[in-house]
Amino acid sequence: QVHLVESGGGLVQAGGSLRLSCAASVSTFSSYAMGWVRQAPGKEREFVAAISYSGSSTFYGDSVKGRFTISRDNAMKSVSLQMNSLKPEDTAVYYCAADRKFRRVVVTNMASTDFGSWGQGTQVTVSS
Questions:
Q1: What is the dihedral of CA 127, 72, 43, 106, to 10 degrees?
Q2: Looking at the predicted structure, is the pLDDT value of residue 24 above 90?
Q3: Which whole-number Å values give the CA distances from 64 to 37, 45, 60, 94, in the listed order?
């Protein structure tokens, strides 16, 4: 079981930026793809981004493509989400998540249901 802790959420004006970080406490961190999923009030969980276990492959949801960037540092057992040009519709609780599958090579078309371990979430609020 992977223990994940997010940080970096907060309140920002539209057009601004935030960087979310996620720290993992498992020795096999470098063997699993990681991702971010968000959930706004009254809405279903929405896939945001994923990165392969090596960091060589990334995939983004259509609503954040071109604005968000996912990255990872396997030595530090961390994954980050740089969010630029934020919009009010980006307001949600953001969850860091670890893949269910060992050493998934291709992260294209990953979905929220592909993740098996979740952090507690961090709130991101974008004001208009």
A1: 140
A2: yes
A3: 11, 14, 7, 13
